[in-house]
Amino acid sequence: MSEYSAGRSGFPPAYLDRVGSSFTDFLAAAAPDLLPGRRPVPQLPVGDVTPHGTTIVSVTYDGGVLMGGDRRATMGNLISSRDIEKVYPADAWSVIGIAGAAGIAIEMVRLYQVELEHYEKIEGLTLSLDGKANRLAQMIRGNLGAALQGLAVVPLFAGFDLDAAPGTTPGRIFSYDVTGGNYEERGYAAVGSGSLFARNSLKKTWRPGLDGDAATRSLVEALYDAADDDSATGGPDPVRRLYPIVYRVDAEGAVRLTDDEVAAVAKIITDERAAAEGQG
Amino acid sequence: MTMPYYASPEQLMRDKSEYARKGIARGRSVAVVTYADGVLFIAENPSSTLHKVGELYDRIGFAAVGRYSEFESLRVAGVRLADVRGYSYNRRDVTGRVIANAYAQTLGEVFTQQLKPFEVELCVAEVGDTPETDQLYRLTFDGSVVDEPDFVVMGGQAEAVSANLREHFLPGMGLAEALRVGVQALSAVSPATSAGNGGPSLLSAEQLEVAVLDRRRPKRAFRRITGAALRPLLDRQEESAAVGGEEPHTAAHSPSVPQPGTPAGLGEPSAPDSGGTAGSGGEAPTT
User: Fold this and answer.
1) Per residue in B139-175, pLDDT tens?
2) Which end of chain B is more exposed for a tag (fewer CB within 10 A), N or C?
3) Cα A215 from chain centroid (whole Å)
4) Which residues constitute the catalytic centre (chain A) (predicted)?
5) Are B105 and A118 inside 8 Å of each other by CB?
6) Residues 74-93 of B with CB under 8 A from A
7) From the candidates B55, B87, B144, B286, which should be mutated to test the interface with A, based on the most A CB atoms within 10 A?
8) Which residues form the domain of A91?
């Protein structure tokens, strides 16, 4: 009988005994084998034989926050996926993007999504945005051993702060390092192999108080610049109709922009650059 | 050490049942009613934080009566089971039946093994893609599980509320109509209304906890209806009650011919009360 289905005698004791509203804490007691951080760490570096996700960019704007990611995953010098999705809604008001070892990262995102929903169902309340950011830091911390063997996972977290004080921007961005360090970013942030180029691009195009359309353009352009200079970041791909994934989080919640919307923005950028005689 | 008196197993079970029944009947009632777009939960509950109704999973809801601490720990266990299963398999692999079975086993075990049985009665409701696939499981303190059609009433004067609902329930009612029927049935026996110690004839929004599992919602079907959203729905029903008196039902609410796949006795326009509580499934064996 597996640990995670009710046995003949109903709920195993851990289901009824412990009080707590964290799904991860509960799994640690009831089914620790399901947690990503509880597995033995590989003895040799395995970074080159697992797919790695690359660049994620997030920017704030006057009504909230945007997050986007390119569609490429690499394995050593190979492209292992052209259509991977690396930005996900974490709950109704926040999004998470991941760079690093794709397998562990996607597992972590799933766990994190359940964690937030679980808390919501048990407590009847949504965690505060800072609480959500903190919880994610704890998950990353648990992965440090694997990170040192080439399986680092570095997320970017952004959300709409329902408790934001008047006059402050409700869209907030949090970045992380492999040790679980949690830093709130001002205005914009990028992680992954192309983040250096994306940040440089944002430095020139992003300004405080941009509206939604201008911020979307700024974000897609940053991803384009990252793809221009970083081999592990994919650019817009009109041949296969693959475009960056972009989520917008505003007072209405998190929504994914349609491929057509992103394609239109990407086309404007590529057309402008082509018009500049390829010097853009 | 004192020797316990001998008591026959029958006597023990009878005593436990009586104890649990009394505890459950002391509280206020909860009605779980199916309507056109899903399942409606109505609880008489003056507290806005100590819920009797909750979300278990995407399409699955929970309602309970009895001792709060006991059903709350069962609710948490249900959420955990659903989330662990959904996480380790897939979200689609979490069904109301699995959770209802776990509750039945746990309640049955507590009832037979522990000195004090749980004083709770639960309902696990699941909405499907069509009204025919909606499921209501009623779980009693001894671990019996019954798959009920149409509606479930638990706690307080459940018999009286049930009889009232049986008279007025029609399959395929809209949300406002189902709420009207449910609130009217709960109000008829509530001590907080004119049926009890004087006061208004119907329970107000502050005395009610209302939630729905709405099959039209994309992922998580559960939604609480509180405050600003609940009051207009209740006002509408007071008006219709004032205008239409005791005969608000029109043919529009009942299908002129039974829907395909409707069990015999349901959806008969000439016999609106035929869709009562005739349990379709037998009682599951208790452990």
Assistant:
1) 999 999 999 999 999 998 899 999 999 999 999 999 9
2) N
3) 18
4) 54
5) no
6) 74, 76-77, 79-81, 83-88
7) B87
8) 47-275
Say yes or no: A255 contacts chain B, CB-CB below 8 A.
Answer: no
CATH code of residue A211 = 3.60.20.10
- Who contacts A5 (Cβ-Cβ below 8 Å, separation ≥6)? B85, B98
Interatomic CA distance for residues B50 and B62, integer angstroms: 14
Cβ–Cβ under 8 Å, residues B107 and B141 = yes
Would you call A16 and B106 a contact, using CB atoms and an 8 Å cutoff? yes
Q: What is the ipTM of this complex?
A: 0.88
Q: What is the Cα–Cα distance from A261 to B240, expressed in whole angstroms?
A: 47
Residue A108 and residue A143 in contact, taking contact as beta carbons nearer than 8 Å: yes
A258 noted as active-site residue: no
Q: Which residue has the higher pLDDT, B238 or A63?
A: A63
Q: Is residue A109 part of a domain?
A: yes
Question: How many domains does chain A contain in total?
Answer: 1
Which domains are present in chain B? 25-250 (3.60.20.10)
Q: Range with the lowest mean pLDDT among B74-78, B223-227, B256-260?
A: B256-260
pTM: 0.85
